[in-house]
Amino acid sequence: MSTANMKQHKLGCIGIGRMGYAMAQRLAQAGCDIAVWNRTKSKAEPLKQYGAKVVDTLPELAACDIVFTMVSTGKDVKEVLFGENGVGAKGKMPKIVVDSTSISLEESAEIREKLAKLGVKLLAAPVSGNAKVIKAGKLTVVASGPKDAFDAVAPYLQAIGQGVSYVGDGELSRIAKICHNVMLGVVIQNLCEITVLAEKAGMKRHAFLDFLNKSVMGSMFTRYKTPALVNLDFHVTFTPELLRKDIDLGLSAGREFGVPMPLTSVVRDLVQTLIGNGYTEKDFSALLLLQAKASGIELKPEN
Fold first, then answer.
1. Closest CA to 65 of 24, 97, 23
2. pLDDT of 126-181, one tens digit each?
3. How far apart are the first and last CA of the chain?
4. Please, which residues have CB within 8 angstroms of residue 115's CB and are 6 or more apart in sequence?
5. Close Cβ partners of 156 (under 8 Å, ≥ 6 residues apart)
6. Nearest to 162 by CA among 135, 144, 180
7. Alpha helix positions (H), 234-284
8. Cα-Cα-Cα-Cα dihedral of 240, 246, 252, 255, to 10°?
9. Collapsing DSSP states into helix, strand and coil, what is residue 231?
10. Taking the model in full, what pTM does it have?
11. β-strand 127-128 against 140-143: which pairing, if any?
12. pLDDT tier at 59 (50, 70, 90 boundaries)?
């Protein structure tokens, strides 16, 4: 879409954290007419250099055609949309809300119903990736909701990342994201187990992971996490507490739909143990340290 066409809708963004900032930055750089709001306004101010407008209050975003929300919880989504000082506080609302927050199916359905009564369409659009992935233009998005809302929003989602998948109506995209993040937890735990096994048998971690990444079992994820596991660099891309939240959502969905999830249950306990051991400010791949301790070895960075 041309820069002129990227201005055909007025956009609003709520939540300028690590992810929200990177998303708003890409939309602004794509030439969109965009206004942003964050609880701590100073965090949003740097977006002005890319052409974004920083607003003081949420009701100012009610005049937008499309509003994106990327906040912490379902409670936060409800607060910024329907709260006393929320977007709709003065009786006006945007035509479409695009929510990328990781929330439960029940919360999403409740928000969708409330918005529908106000004549607003909800597009649930969870994302896969982190701030670095967004900056590299490689974010992936899964969306569900009214097809006409998706068609209107798709060009902006494509400006944020490299792949947009529409999976149908309602809350189906929430299920897709929950399944995705459950796999994230199970795969990283397995990767930590086999990496520690290889090291305890006498191999260097970098040598084992080099082989794995070149094999049929290697993936974009194993290659992306290799530097963390080799160098013990656990700066946060995704916290253990956020992973636990998504695993809990997965287990809840499993109970609702009658799907046994034994591997997920075990990984949930291991992530909880990681949190209990004080690794809350480390990346979730710090599960490697827990696995090494349980295996009776002490890891050192291989640089």
1. 97
2. 998 887 888 888 889 999 999 999 999 999 999 998 889 999 999 999 999 999 99
3. 43
4. 81, 93, 97, 121, 122
5. 6, 9, 11, 27, 30, 32, 66
6. 135
7. 240-257, 262-276
8. -90
9. helix
10. 0.85
11. antiparallel
12. very high
Please answer whether residues 270 and 290 qualify as being in contact, where contact means their C-beta atoms are separated by less than 8 angstroms: yes
Phi-psi region of 93 (alpha: psi -120 to 50; beta: other; left: phi over 0): beta
Give the model's pLDDT for residue 129. Answer: 84
CB 41 within 8 A of CB 54: yes
Q: In what order do the strands lie in the sheet with 33-37?
A: 53-54, 33-37, 10-14, 66-69, 96-99, 121-124
Q: What is the mean pLDDT of residues 101-118?
A: 94
The structure tokens listed for 33 are: 């007419």
* Residue 4 pLDDT: 56
Spatial separation of the C-alpha atoms in residues 120 and 112, rounded to whole Å: 8
Contacts of 124 (CB under 8 A, 6+ apart): 99, 108, 112, 143, 144, 145, 171, 173, 174
- Token pair recorded at residue 206: 């970098």
Could you give phi then psi for residue 208, rounded to 5 degrees? -65, -45
Give the chain's radius of gyration (CA, Å): 21
Q: Report yes or no: 264 and 204 within 8 Å, Cβ to Cβ.
A: no
SS3 174: helix
Q: Which residues contact 259 (CB under 8 A, 6 or more apart)?
A: 253
DSSP H/E element including 109: helix 105-117
Distance CA 183, CA 289 (A): 20
